[in-house]
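Minutes, project check-in

Agenda point 3 was the complex the collaborators sent over. CS summarized: three entities, 844 residues total, and the question is how they sit relative to each other. Sequences were read into the notes so everyone works from the same version.
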Amino acid sequence: MSENSSRRNFLKLGLGAAAMAPVSALGLSSAAFAATDPNDIQWDDEMDVLVIGSGMAGMIAAIRAAETDASAKVVVADKMSRLGGSSLISGLNMAVVGSDLQKNIGITDDSWELLLKDIEREAKGYNHRELTEVAAKGTLKLYNFLKDHGVEYDMSIGGGTGVKKLGGHSRARCVWPQGGGTEVIKKLQGYCKTQLTNVEIRKKILLDEILRNDEGRVIGVKVREKYRFSRKHDDLGDNDNPELNSSGKVKYYKVKRGLVMATGGYNQDRKFRGDEVGTMYNAASTTQPGATGGAIKAMISAGFKPIHMTLFRFAFPIPTEDIRWGILVNPRTGERFVDEYNNNDRQAIGMAILEERRHIDGEHTVLIYDQKGAEHYHDQQRFHLSLDGKNGINGTIWKFDTLEALADNFKMNTNLLKANVDKYNKNMAQDQDEFHKPKGVLKGASSISQAPYYAMQLNPRYNYAQGGAMISPRAEAIDVVTGEPIKGAFVCGEASAGTYGYIRLTACSTIDCGTFGIVAGENAAKTIPWA
Amino acid sequence: MNKKWFIVILLAIGGLLGTGASLVTAEIAHSTGDAAFCGSCHSMEPMANTFKLDVHGGNNSHGFVAQCVDCHLPQDSVVSYMLDKTKHGINDVFVENFTNTDEIDWIARREERERFVFDSGCLSCHQELLDRKDAENPKSLQTHAHYKNQLASGDPIQCVSCHVTVGHNGMLRSELNKRHPEYSFKSK
Amino acid sequence: MLTLLLTVTASWVYADAEPDWKSLADEYTLKPHHQKLKFDCVMCHQGNDPEEFEPLESENCLSCHGSAKKVADRLQFMDPNHTNPHNSFHDGLSLDCYECHAEHEPSTNLCADCHTTTSWMGKVP
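CS then shared the predicted structure for the full assembly.
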């Protein structure tokens, strides 16, 4: 008798417990992250706004947050001991609609709609228009913001006008900060130091985990202070693996209003990018060595929605339209393998090179010009930078008096090379190139015959990661399960995704970093604190 | 005159002449030891020019100027000082006038500094240095204690083992690069 | 008998307390320019417990090497080309020493990560 009633009681209790169990246990909705109870954490430090990343996007976000509310404590944390991210070593040219420089050369019919059109032509439908509009509409505001914070623009560009029309843009609108990204970063850092007492910049702080409470709001982060990034790994992404790099001491930061992720791309992470696109494992990258997958992985673990991860953007150290004057050869066979004009499709040429390298154990393919080709170069300044060895990884161009000397230098068989050069010259003379390279685009450089000869190990650089955390037009991170903005989380710059698409138009990374940096900083400061 | 007086007068005159000669020698030795003298030779111009900018070469609030020989000749005994001075004097005059001094690799020679910069030189002025109990840079107390330990244990290091650029304001390499650039900065 | 036992135990205990500096020095070698100065571990690392030794910060290096400016001035002849590693175009005087310099491992050249530097600079000590 008592056994039956106890069994009944047990069942009752059991059902009751089930009824009270969190809805998630019944599978009606689920969270993408493990919730943290703030009371369980021993916080080591607290701040109102925490910006992760000290490149252009992060610095602008921090400045705007501090300016929006002078009482807000803003901390910029970077995992590297060298601040400035990829921005420090970039040219940072930017597309600006309606600048004074543009007006000075008589252009009055440029518009954000025209810029949007140019961007979307390259994006080929992958972009989220509401995000692209934010960037396209905000260029003049960004241009003036930088000016107001100490940045000057390089007036030697465009024959003294300071503005130039770059490939893909339908108006002359691109400007360069004087001294490139180095100057921008220096000026913004200097501004914080002298004008904003509520901004603190800290280095060697690695973000380990983003903490969200059971309502999904970001409440803080787990970091490692005094982290030491090591450039000695062949795959720099190894630095995110605690088994390979365990430096630093764990600390917990309470973030009261907003976390801004301005962590750039994952271009230096061989495995991470190679998992998305196979041949990408071997690409070079001239982004900063710290551009690894750790940040995007932390965001994904915290339920941020990642998109566009398979998209990539190649850069060559020389303009794509200057590749056509030469021939690309496999150093082992001396043979060509692609049409070097290829409709100026940088992605296609890059992929062809990486694929060819896969067949020769990763050895570099060689681009060969003759003197005629060198004279046809659009960008003579870049050509000479390459001759000086100042054009970055695989950016050096060597000069040789003879084809033999050239072949010798790259350990190529001279006879094989000569045979292939002769074949190319013969076919091209009749516009019958075996890869259908059109003679018409080569003007006076339709053969490789006139000494001296020039050569470089042309290798595509994976320099922009379109992939990242999806955002709203308010720079809010989006939760991968609910599709809703995550409270207290913002992403800006290359770390975010959706503004661009298949290709990012040149001179547009800066406007993405800058316009969304402004938005993220302002919104983070305005977020109501949870504690 | 008898022999005794002759000898006395001889000795007196000899003594006067000897004293005179010593004083003149001392004066010559002294005036051939400063930067104006040493720096008058072409090969020594970079050294003299950088010395002038150094705290030991006049660039200090007292206007104090050391002589080249204060550091570059041993100061622990007159005999070793004069011997070295004579040896170098003969060598330097010969080399400067009869060989091509432009072929001397001074930049590499700096690595032999322990051979031609003497601790006795430093210490003859910086007499209290090694016994200090406090210092502007507390690290120096640790390093100078290390110097004393090594000296005491018979395995010495020298002042210039650590103080690599003393006397020439850290600019000697750059000054020498004006005549013999180490890097071409040339394109490939 | 007791004295013997105590002596043996005592020496065993004390032997454990003193770190084996010799084999540490063999494992963590110094660069030639520091080895010549006959430094021991504690010249740079504070304290007596090697287990507690941490990688040096730039201020530690500068306690002997003076200041970032002093170090940069020694390579003044590289300034006209902006290739002075201690006062470069990108970083000025703000680099940490350990970006390039390591003591117990080979050093690396930060500039050479991107640039072909063979005609501008020598080996990093």
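Noted in discussion: The mean pLDDT of chain B is 93.
Follow-up: revisit at the next meeting once the mutant set is ready.
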